[in-house]
Amino acid sequence: GAGVSQTPSNKVTEKGKYVELRCDPISGHTALYWYRQSLGQGPEFLIYFQGTGAADDSGLPNDRFFAVRPEGSVSTLKIQRTERGDSAVYLCASSYIAGGAGELFFGEGSRLTVL
Amino acid sequence: DAKTTQPPSMDCAEGRAANLPCNHSTISGNEYVYWYRQIHSQGPQYIIHGLKNNETNEMASLIITEDRKSSTLILPHATLRDTAVYYCIVSDRANTGNQFYFGTGTSLTVIP
Question: Tell me, what's the pLDDT at A62?
Answer without folding.
Answer: 95
